[in-house]
Amino acid sequence: MKNLATMFSVLLLLVFAVSCSNSTTRTGTVDDDPMDNERNDNEQSDAENDDSASGSDDDGDDSASGGENNGTTPGNNNKIVENLEFESGFFFVEGVEYSLKSRSDKTGKAMIWYNFQPADENPEEKPLFVFYNGGPGSASAIVFLYNTAKRTGDQAFSEDGFAENGSSWTQLGNLLYVDARQTGFSYGIIDDPEDRNERRTYFSTSNFNVFADAADFIRVILRFLKTHPALESNPVILAGESYGGTRSTAILNILLNVADYAENNRVFYDETLFEEIAAHFKRIDSNVSGMPSKEDVAKQFGRQIMIQPLIAGNEQFEAEGELLERDDSPLYVVQDETGVKFNKCSGFNCNKHNNALIYIQRAGRDIYSYRRPYNWLFDYTDVATAKMLHMPMFEEFILNDPRKIDELYAENRTGVFRYADVPNLCSRNLTDAAFADLPEIERIVLKNRIVQRNLKPLSTGNLESVFGDLQAYDEYFVDLNYDINSAFYSGAVSHYDTVNGEMFLENIKSVKTFITQAEEDIIIYAKGIPESLKSFNGVSGVTVKDDSFTVNFSDGQNVEVTFPFYPESSHSVSVNQPAKFFNDVRNWL
Questions:
Q1: What is the pLDDT at residue 450?
Q2: N or C: which end of the chain has fewer CB within 10 A?
């Protein structure tokens, strides 16, 4: 039962998002007049006839309700983009039949939001970094708005608006930001969104589990590459934060071992996905026939960056808990600074990681940044998200005109919904009945989160003034969708399962890996990552150095993982030490 307690305790704690809903050479503010920010038609280059920025199809089908993927789908699935310029829009993901642990299932339809930012120089020659946050249920706003993209919303550089980012990763390559289904700007599609039961049914393990989530991202990445021929064969580097580490692990494991998956030798089977993967590698390499080999895949998907990741499931949390009770634990620093005594676990059912998280909150500190006050990270990163939801800041951050994306408009959102219930969980009252089915730690964390949001509501901006009023169950942007979490936990393969660590260890034999080690993060106490890997079959030992660790496999293979230390960083390294993070990645590449 100890493992089960750990699973419950981190269910919402792991959600890294703002909330529910370095030089600066140029700046803007949220007070700018929208009319002052309209771009000159010449600067738009006729918007490349605006096919790249538009969400409507060339054949005139702009229905967001969608059909199966028959070549005439809504979104940008079929738009060939010749020029690499700033671009945003949606990819349509059709309903797909699959099996997980031999159980047949089918996903629902979704429109997946992306923002593309080309490299500063020679983008056609540079790798593609694919960014996403975690949760599960979290938008990718943090990693997008805080010091990786061309412009930053970090209030440290521009209090009221945006700033040109001196640490922009566009200096290293092309950037693709993706929101998971039902998070950020991405949304689900059903036949009758007014039907509460149909909305609720969508929020099930059919759509929300480790492998279905990974399949969504593989489809979007491959479809983006197909519609951007200049990049189709370029290296792709996954960059996931928090649960994004689990997502990266599943994505890479499917890609690297697609031939084995296609033979139905693994826990997941999705025939149409495997065919799409095979078609992609055949297009970029005529020597590939049938399913690509691990070596074929690693030529393109051979590097990954993991930001404070969950990669080893429950084993990782157990290892973190052990380290957090040692005499050199940061919990004793908090004890000395606050005067609030830390008591080690006692009793058979006490979970050490949970105990540490409860203590940090009791001491009035942030579990994502133990040196800072309770909820500091959420409070801090709410600021830039609120900016992005204000026109014209939205346009300034994505660096193309959102008014030309058809699927954003209320009149085109047929079948669209964001929430299972109305109102959203963030607006529910704090009665015991509302939390009756949750374990005690979940009640504590969720209640605190809701209280914080009710006290400090996230600005909804003025997107409705541009795109139209939405139904109560819809919303333009959802930074954290609580309806997703319980579904992920209930899946046949959850993000706490041992299989995630096994896949990670299998992947790193083929994929060069970079993992951040942030000092202030308690929810992902990164020192526990290499320690946890020692418990897996096939690992004979793990050797840790200052900025790396080496996994020694029983078969004699040794794999070094880059593991740089960030002494002033919270769970979000790009928020606290963006310049060091950028330079470390540049040197690693």
A1: 65
A2: N
pLDDT digits (tens, 9 = 90+) for 339-366: 999 999 988 889 899 899 999 999 999 9
SS3 state of residue 71: coil
Place of tokens 């078609």: 279
CB 494 within 8 A of CB 280: no
In the predicted model, what is the mean pLDDT of residues 18-23? 41
Count other C-beta atoms under 10 Å from residue 263's C-beta.
12
Q: Which residues, 6 or more positions from 70, have their beta carbon under 8 angstroms from its beta carbon?
A: none
Structure-block tokens of residue 461: 């901006």
- Tokens found for residue 21: 């809903």
Rounded alpha-carbon distances, angstroms, from residue 261 to 107, 402, 480, 499: 18, 39, 32, 15
Buried b (16+ CB within 10 A) or exposed e, 82-103: eebbbbbbbbbbbbbebbbeee
Max avg pLDDT among 57-71, 109-123, 349-363? 109-123
Extents of the domains making up the chain = 1-44+113-329+346-358+374-589
Query: First-to-last CA distance in the chain?
Result: 43
As a whole number of angstroms, the distance between CA 117 and CA 88 comes to 9
The predicted model gives 308-335 an average pLDDT of 96
**pLDDT exceeds 70 at position 407:** yes
Q: Using omega within 30 degrees of 0 as the cis cutoff, is the peptide bond preceding 423 cis? A: yes
Q: Are 316 and 310 in contact (CB under 8 A)?
A: yes
Alpha-carbon distance 94 to 109, whole Å? 5
Residue ranges of E strands in 191-347: 236-241, 268-269, 303-307
Structure tokens belonging to residue 147: 């010091």
Residue 350 Cα to chain centre, angstroms = 31
Average pLDDT for residues 267-286, to the nearest whole number? 97
Buried b (16+ CB within 10 A) or exposed e, 553-588: beeeeebebbbbebeebbbbbbbbbbebbbebbeee
Nearest CA to 211 out of 9, 488, 427 is that of 488
Structure tokens at 394: 């939205």
Take residue 134 and report the two structure tokens written for it: 């975690």
Q: At the fourth CATH level, which superfamily is domain 1-44+113-329+346-358+374-589?
A: Alpha/Beta hydrolase fold, catalytic domain (3.40.50.1820)
Residue 482 has pLDDT above 80, yes or no: no
Tell me the two tokens of residue 333: 């620093």
pLDDT at 384 over 80: yes
Which has more confidence, 3 or 502?
Answer: 502
- Cα 353–chain centre separation: 23
Q: What is the pLDDT of residue 479?
A: 87
